[in-house]
């Protein structure tokens, strides 16, 4: 599989499902368009990343799969990017304290033809709602001191110490990590004409890594 993303979390999730990956990052303009909602933005960016990488490929992987994704953390229609240092992380965490925010991942999956053109394509957006506990200043300071929030959109990592901030999740946990893996594997299986077989293989691989 070609993974059009540098995210180590996406790479780990797909590797855990048994996919052999070649990482080819996409270089595109990620600026949000006027009046574009966060889900619309990530859907468009995922599609553009997939096409940008497909157009530069010199070979087609054995499974003929290419996956691109883009994730956004947002609340009230406003995107929460990576914080600007410790002060920015504290401000973001205070804004999330006691509130529900959203994590949307746009995914574009392609089945490539032998000549590198796109034989089939499917895109989707997965959104998970995440509710934080009310956070005290001491809790925020302690979390920021770990350094974990500084390179994370929304200033937290749910797969790390940031899990202690979360009161409730509605939706796909893996989506908050960076990729809605269960849905994606089913989409990939559909593109390959063997959804059940691909899901079964991913389950075996996941059990082997447990």
UniProtKB/TrEMBL annotation:
<dbReference type="Pfam" id="PF02545">
    <property type="entry name" value="Maf"/>
</dbReference>
<comment type="function">
    <text>Nucleoside triphosphate pyrophosphatase that hydrolyzes dTTP and UTP. May have a dual role in cell division arrest and in preventing the incorporation of modified nucleotides into cellular nucleic acids.</text>
</comment>
<comment type="similarity">
    <text>Belongs to the Maf family. YhdE subfamily.</text>
</comment>
<feature type="site" description="Important for substrate specificity">
    <location>
        <position position="71"/>
    </location>
</feature>
<keyword id="KW-0378">Hydrolase</keyword>
<dbReference type="GO" id="GO:0005737">
    <property type="term" value="C:cytoplasm"/>
</dbReference>
<feature type="site" description="Important for substrate specificity">
    <location>
        <position position="9"/>
    </location>
</feature>
<dbReference type="GO" id="GO:0009117">
    <property type="term" value="P:nucleotide metabolic process"/>
</dbReference>
<dbReference type="InterPro" id="IPR003697">
    <property type="entry name" value="Maf-like"/>
</dbReference>
<keyword id="KW-0546">Nucleotide metabolism</keyword>
<protein>
    <recommendedName>
        <fullName>dTTP/UTP pyrophosphatase</fullName>
        <ecNumber>3.6.1.9</ecNumber>
    </recommendedName>
</protein>
<dbReference type="InterPro" id="IPR029001">
    <property type="entry name" value="ITPase-like_fam"/>
</dbReference>
<dbReference type="GO" id="GO:0047429">
    <property type="term" value="F:nucleoside triphosphate diphosphatase activity"/>
</dbReference>
<keyword id="KW-0963">Cytoplasm</keyword>
<feature type="active site" description="Proton acceptor">
    <location>
        <position position="70"/>
    </location>
</feature>
<feature type="site" description="Important for substrate specificity">
    <location>
        <position position="159"/>
    </location>
</feature>
